[in-house]
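Give me the fold.
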Amino acid sequence: MPAGNDSGPRLPPLLMLRAFEATGRTGSMRKAADDLGVSHTVVSRHVRNLEGWMGRKLVTAGPRGVALTEEGQILLAAVSKAFRLIANTASDLRPARAGASLRIWCIPGLATRWLTPRLAIIEEILRGTEVVLRSSDALPDFSNDEADLAIGFGEFESLATNGLPLLRPRMFPLASPQWLATHGTLNSLADLPNWPLIHEESHRQWADWFEAAGVGAGQRLQGPRLWDASLGLDAARAGQGVALGSRILAAEDLASGRLVELFDTNVRLGGYYVVTSPQRRGSPAIDRLTAWLGHELELAEKG
């Protein structure tokens, strides 16, 4: 018998098993991808690689999703049992660890202008849980355990199945009184595309806003791109042009008169949502935080 340190049968790579388990549990690679917070392509590749590793066909595609072969059903039963055992054991051990934390990724504008001033309230809601906040316009890779919760902004229709809509804020043009004193009052909304505009990462947001407002831009929009809603409002406050904002992000500037709303419009482009890591779904702390977020955002929107 050859010498070695082999202590038993080799295990398949965990990433492959996680993708396979989610596929078998949901009956769809696309739903599995949403559940794991990765792309459909990644799940498909992991399942194919697992089949190659096992030397067995585990999954078959059909018109209504995927079905497990007999070998796939046997493996799913074993993997599911093992994952439940690991999850339950981890849950039992977790309270013994000091300093439980909740890692939150949040889009920069909301993180800077709205969430950060409320950290003390969030810590109270989470009852002793350490809050780790990261400002990012990208969603975390939940499969690599990068975060527990993400707060994003986008169209609700394209949300993953594990995404929860919170609020669609009204978006409107903002400028400083000093800028208006220098450039004059705009007489018509139709004139706005010709004035200096402040953009985020592209001109798309303003173009979509004009379309929703029934205003023909008529030409390629000009102006600096600042990649961040908070930076855009700062630039508007400094007299650099007209920015798009909401009452949620610009409440203090509006109340103090540092920024004023231009025209009376009712345009809503996308909205805030939360996505929870599959590993933390059902967490009482996250449920409390999510409920608070929805309620407070509605109050902030109403002013």
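Residues 23 and 70 are 15 Å apart (CA to CA).
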